[in-house]
């Protein structure tokens, strides 16, 4: 965000720090530009930007947030003071074919309002019931990611423990090199775009000599 703000300042825009801690404002004359860098406690990082999809907006082609990320943000806004499902329901109907609903479930698991809304989508048959959030869904994701770790040539690991918790996946275990450890995180993000990866996998010290053996 600091680099983006600096670029706008160099271009002649006037910066202003609002009381909110998730955006910065910039003015081009009377035109306001919001720099949103942490909506709903979800940082706009390199992975978030890489998921953006180029779209035509009038005469301009620009990267646009994915339908999945948009749906996650819309649901995480819901709380006891903002609980009108109507506008969000219209959005969900319009973009349902473009949304990775499994990822939406994972990323909004901590919100009871999101849970209620997603259950409504299942009841209205906007989202298939097979995508409903259950322990079976989480167990399926964990088993499927372990399978991918075993079969992907970049990882080829059988013993990595996988635990999904909301929009985070924790990896634990031991591998023989740092490159393979890094590839585990890459494969995890490919399986669940937008997921936060806690990579606790250790690299074994293959250069350390083993214990001496007595030969008689």
From TrEMBL:
Family annotation (InterPro entries) = NT_sf
The lineage's top-level taxon is Bacteria
Name-wise, this protein is BON domain protein
Recall the taxonomic lineage recorded for the source organism.
Bacteria, Bacillati, Actinomycetota, Actinomycetes, Mycobacteriales
